[in-house]
Amino acid sequence: MFLHAYLRASGLDQNALRAKQSLIDFASGYDMKISSFHVENASGTSLDRKVLWKMIDDANHGDCILVEAVDRLSRLKREEWDKLKKAMGKKCLNIVSLDLPTSFLIFNKNKQDGFTETMFVAINAMMLDVLAAIACKDNETRAFRRDQGIKRAQELTPEKYSGRPADKERQQTIIKLRDGGLSIRGIAETLKCSPSTVQRAIKQQA
């Protein structure tokens, strides 16, 4: 059984390799070594991920896919999540996620009797579905709050808000969005700027 690490970040300005060492350390704790790393900057809400599909295509029957969290693998809606599971299921690929302890049991497979193994496989599959659904819901909630922030900014400064304002106007918009309860990452996504730009504008205001 080969261990393939999948690392994903949504935007090009985000570090997809951030969790690499955590995955290496985790595998080492089970006396295993990661065979390959697959790094991708793409949205987890889409199945259009070339690196993910190449990893699945290259993997051998019964191999293991290691991720930092289930949401790194999927923020997909139910129908698309089922398609991804089906593709991985054809090769009997095992998913191990650092935020899903029941998935670790695959490494102790040889120590389990048939009943115990079957029970834990069923439990892990159920928990995987639950975390995938939570990841999808979390993404929808963040999108809803972002849209609320945009609407609020438009109401407060209708004559100035135009998607990506100039520096001074952008700073004012950042403050208004922050006062409206939007997170730093949510503001950055809304204004298409980096989180550090948002933090800098907040500090300048203070």
Task: Explain what this protein looks like in three dimensions.
The protein is an alpha/beta fold and 206 residues long. It folds into two domains: 3-137, Rossmann fold (3-Layer(aba) Sandwich), CATH 3.40.50.1390; 157-205, Arc Repressor Mutant, subunit A, CATH 1.10.10. Helices cover 54% and strands 10% of the residues. The relative contact order is 0.10.
Entry summary:
It contains eight helices and four strands. By secondary structure, the protein is an alpha/beta fold.
Give the topology, please.
Blueprint: E1 3-9, H1 20-29, E2 36-41, H2 50-58, E3 64-67, H3 70-73, H4 78-90, E4 94-97, H5 114-156, H6 167-179, H7 184-191, H8 195-205
Parallel strand pairs: 1-2, 1-3, 3-4
Helix pairs in contact: 5-7, 6-8, 7-8
Strand adjacency order, main sheet: 2-1-3-4
Overall form: elongated
- Tell me the strand percentage band: 5-15%
Named at the architecture level, the CATH assignment of the largest domain is: 3-Layer(aba) Sandwich
Class per helix and strand makeup: alpha/beta
Distance between the termini: 54 Å
